[in-house]
Amino acid sequence: MESQTWPVGFRCLLLLALVGSARSEGVQTCEEVRKLFQWRLLGAVRGLPDSPRAGPDLQVCISKKPTCCTRKMEERYQIAARQDMQQFLQTSSSTLKFLISRNAAAFQETLETLIKQAENYTIILFCNTYRNMALEAAASVEEFFTDVGLYLFGADVNPEEFVNRFFDSLFPLVYNYLISPGVTDSSLEYSECIRMARRDVSPFGNIPKRVVGQMGRSLLPSRTFLQALNLGIEVINTTDYLHFSKECSRALLKMQYCPHCQGLTLTKPCMEYCLNVMRGCLAHMAELNPHWHAYIRSLEELSDAMHGTYDIEHVLLNFHLLVNDAVLQAHLNGQKLLEQVNRICGRPVRTPTQSPRCSFDQSKEKHGMKTTARNSEETLANRRKEFINSLRLYRSFYGGLADQLCANELAAADGLPCWNGEDIAKSYTQRVVGNGIKAQSGNPEVKVKGTDPVINQIIDKLKHVIQQITTHVAAQDNIHSLLTILQMRSLGGLTAQGLTRLKLLQGRSPKPDKWELLQLGSGGGMVEQVSGDCDDEDGCGGSGSGEVKRTLKITDWMPDDMNFSDVKQIHQTDTGSTLDTTGAGCAAATESMTFTLISVVMLLPGIW
Description:
Blueprint: H1 2-26, H2 31-39, H3 71-129, H4 131-152, H5 159-179, H6 188-201, H7 207-240, H8 246-256, H9 258-261, H10 271-281, H11 283-286, H12 289-305, H13 312-317, H14 319-332, H15 334-345, H16 362-368, H17 380-391, H18 401-410, E1 418-419, E2 424-425, H19 453-490, H20 496-505, E3 516-519, E4 527-530, E5 567-572, E6 578-583, H21 592-603
Antiparallel strand pairs: 1-2, 3-4, 5-6
């Protein structure tokens, strides 16, 4: 009897030992979960479970197994999941954001330097050539280039108005010092009368209209380009801090932190599971993709159109030459203008006075212009080209963002055990949906409803700037085509000589092995020097006036004595005095064909 009861007792003890051993192996500690929770500063560890237990009050991380989470922990985890998502978005877009913001700042800085350089050229023109009026002209020059900067950087100013205001203020000076010269002092009322008469007597010919056309066609694209870059930064800032829906927040919590509740702190979600969650959360953002793609393409088209004779570098750096042409033209027609002004304003009462002299401190301005030397490759056009080439890599940024985040940050590597939303598994078996709102109807992880008003607002802004750019580029192409047709007709078809002249008038030049002289026009037309280093992409303007070429080279150099000796004439005034008017491209020597073409351009209605 005793021999039979021993084996039974032994078996009972052995069974109890085995059961105890199994329980001890199944018991999990929540210590690791508590440490991670505290490390993330999600809250105090007081009251957190020391070991897994039932979690009947959980709403997202629901499991039949014991859990290390409480309802408060779940709420904190949900906040952390949203914060993680925003951090992932900001990290993913940081390179793109830096690319756009850095180039926007660089373009603005270069434009500011360009404006200052053009202003200095114009002031030096007056100091060296029209010294008597230089001091009074300096204020008008400064105001003009201030308006140029304000317009470029988005202020509500009108180029036509500030160009006309400049020439209005210039005419009284030209009249008092060149047309009716002398050490005199006319009244403010008389000077105002002369200023008001400028548009009636047209002392500067069509040069003010040419400047209006050039400024409009060169400043507006640059202004639009800068505004478009700022919009790009705004789009990225908005999507970096996008508000996530309740459905998305719950899905992010379930994917990232519900494994912690089961002690799986190192487990990552399965790739297919991650794609469903992220594509659902970023479905509205994916709707940006076609508009973002079109935005980058329009920037590329605008950049390509910003070249040639109406390139902003060419226009601003040669503005002083047009001012010189305008002053020369008024002086050449001085007798006629004198009669017209006397008829409109009467004769002034003059009193002797000391003529103000130029006080332009070139050494000071030279110091102010001193910047890091740049070679000819660092032009605005080349900077834009490099920027567009880099930006082109991000054309599908918003369409592939969800996939990028899963592949680079969130999902487990292929072949490793992963979290499928319920437990550790080898793979995710649910259907995987595509990108965009329409594809989310069958998403098993995130329910996407309606549209996002913030995203819709961004899309509207992108559409608006794309339409603006398209209009500018189309207008540029239309004018270029019209000019080409007129030039072909005037040059008698595309003969070899006609083609060469056509390229010159379009702001391009052939590539001879050496410098050569090409005769423009007939009957004593001006001779132009053409550089073989300039091609159709450089946008160099053909001008026998010694124009500053398109390449912007910002260096320590500042002309101590700017040379305007390309065309040097000594004119005799009615009083017997002589005037040394050294300048480039005076009206009498300017190719009549160019004036005709510019006049046609100015008549095109409603383009700018």
